[in-house]
Structure formats: C-alpha cells, structure tokens
Design brief:
This protein is 74% helix and 0% strand. The protein is mainly α and 199 residues long. α1 packs parallel to α6. The chain is elongated, with a radius of gyration of 18 Å. The two termini are 31 Å apart.
Amino acid sequence: MEGTNPVNKKLAAALSGGAVLVLALSGCSEDEGNAELDAWAKQICDVVPAQNAKIAAAYESITKAAKDSPPEKLQETDSQAFQDLADGYRARAAVIQKAGPPPGVDDGERKQQDAVKKLTTLSASYADLKKQVDALDTKDQADFASGLQDVSDRMEEVEKQRQSALGALKELEAGDPKKALVKQKGCQAASASPSSAAS
C-alpha cells in the first residue's frame, strides 16, 4: 500500500479543513426582523443541520479511510462519500432554489441563482469523482495508485469550485438575510457544530 497511501492522504487533505458549506453565521441579532425574510430564512435553516451532517460525515469517512485502508475498502468508502457529497450539495441547491430570492434584498435573485448554480456544479463534480473512483482497478496496485493520483488532482479543481460556491453563499446571506438566518435555531445549530467550524 506504499504507493497508494501518500496519494490518498493528499486526497484526504484536499477534502479536510471545513469542506462543509455552512452558512457563515456569527453573533446574535436583536433587530425587529422582517416577517417575509424570516420565513425565507426558516425554509433554509430547517434543513441545514441534516444536510451538513451528511456532508461532514462524508468528508470524515474519506479522511479515516486514507490512513490505512486496503484498496477495496478505500474505493468503497470514497465512492459512498462522493455520492453523499453530491447528494448533500444538490439538496442544498434545491433548498435555496425552492426558498427563492431573499425578499427585499437588492440583487437578491442574481445572488440566489448564483448560489444555486455553483452548488449544482459542485454536486455534479462530486458525482463525477464517484464514477472516477468506481472505475479504479483495485487488483493492480500500480494502476490503482495512478488512478488515485488522478482523483487527487481532480479534487484540487473541485476544491476551487467549493470555494466559489462558499463565496456565493456568503454573498447571498450578507446583510439583512444574515440577520434573519442567525435567529433560526437550525442555522444556529449548524454554525455551532464542530465539523462546520473550520473553513
């Protein structure tokens, strides 16, 4: 496994460090609120904890498997994790799409659609990574190590997409939407969880 361990550790490193896209909430809000905006925030925050838990668990499983798993186990774990990541980010995009633009926010529709588009792209990239991992030959160690290196290289591109999606989410939640989001228990719970604290 000497050939695959360094590569998978690199893969795990690319995935670790707060890859969960949590709404970047901090502080508390004492404003009077906006009923429409609060309703919009509730739609998002009601499902954020479950989505984040799934995404965080997927990253954690890849990191654990990177330590000393044999090729077959590594392939199985990474494949499932990439599927969970694809599902998790697609679900996040769907929630934001369903919630619609934040009411009364300048350029809200563009910000909403930008976040949806980038999360959807990220989801598709993880689905592609799953296919790439599924196609690896676990019987040939040299071949497997080479294929794993390709996955790791692709992960670097996907990380750029993740950062872009995170930026779009931060733009969407800036200003009044953030005030509405921090009041929602779901988003408070998600922002307080250890797995989402890193960035």
